[in-house]
Amino acid sequence: MKFTKEEKQAFVKHYQNGETVLQICNKNKIPRSTFYRWIQNYQRTVTKTGTVITPQEFSSLKRKVESFGITVWSIQRTYLMRSTGGSSWYFLQSYFSE
What we know:
Organism: [Clostridium] leptum DSM 753
Structural class: mainly alpha
Number of strands: 2
Strand content: under 5%
Protein name: Transposase
Strand order of the largest sheet: 1-2
GO molecular function, one term: transposase activity
GO biological process, one term: DNA transposition
InterPro entries: Homeodomain-like_sf
Largest sheet: 2 strands, antiparallel
């Protein structure tokens, strides 16, 4: 059975509202693998500012934040090493090694 984009979005909305994948798939005769793909394609997150973000956009933003975190850590480490003559190295190592 072929579902329209609107139907797929409605199924994903049911999932977001608490219905289980198994319930949705059994009731509508949808393979679970197909439904998980629909979740990836149609699930949206709305931020506090009202911006709509897809899972793909969220993953991309997460990677960027992690990259910026590494950059900030590197700058902090360089600054502290220069300003303290290296004595902060052990503090930094224990603080940032999570």
